[in-house]
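Exercise 7.
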Amino acid sequence: MSDNTDQNPVFQYRAGFRSLANSVQKWLILGGLALSFIGTFGLLFANLSQGAFCIPCTLKILIILGGVSFIAGIAWGFYWRKKIRDEFRAKFGP
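Solution. The predicted structure, written as tokens, is:
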């Protein structure tokens, strides 16, 4: 195995943080989609004729939390990529 001195420094720069940030972004987006999916199909198939008042409210909260998580995942992706890019350019130049 060759040493890493001949590789592009872009791929070496803060690789651990990039991996962690990418995982956080992936789980925020997937979790948001899953919560929204569960809440939406729960509302479609909920048996509301038994007077269960709390079930629709809970499912609507799941949909909202899913949307917030999804948007947070997208925002986190833009933030950490910009942060890495700016730090790399400050250290190595444009």
